[in-house]
Write a structure and sequence with these properties.
Largest sheet: 5 strands, parallel
Order of helices and strands: EHEHEHEHEH
Oligomer: single chain
Radius of gyration: 13 Å
Distance between the termini: 30 Å
CATH topology: Rossmann fold
CATH class: Alpha Beta
Number of strands: 5
Helix content: 40-55%
């Protein structure tokens, strides 16, 4: 089964996780989350029982599809950080407003 990962679990990331789990297309054991805010992660674990990453690099190690649910200004830093783990098998989905594919390609 395909696995999903989330880098950034604020309002938008958490809403996506909720919607995906509510749809019953994916089970919690097939979703991993990472955020700089440990309290957000603890809340997601308690509410949905998703897997938690201790570092952002664990997300692409686990997941086939990686959602970038970070602020637009953080996208270049996050992509640079994840770059060593992203391969041709990954689908990267950014929900950062105003960040184009061309911009992501330059990161």
């Amino acid at each position: 089964m395909e696995k999903l990962g989330f880098v950034g679990c604020g309002a938008m990331g958490s809403a996506l996780i909720k919607g995906i789990l509510d749809s019953k297309v994916f089970q919690a054991e097939n979703i991993i989350c990472w955020d700089t805010d440990a309290q957000k992660l603890a809340a997601l674990k308690k509410q949905y029982n998703v897997a938690l990453a201790t570092h952002s690099l664990q997300v692409p190690e686990f997941a086939d599809t990686v959602f970038l649910a970070v602020k637009p200004d953080d996208v270049p830093r996050v992509l640079a950080e994840l770059n060593e783990k992203i391969t041709g098998r990954h689908l990267i989905v950014s929900i950062a407003a105003g960040v184009t594919l061309a911009h992501m390609g330059r990161c």
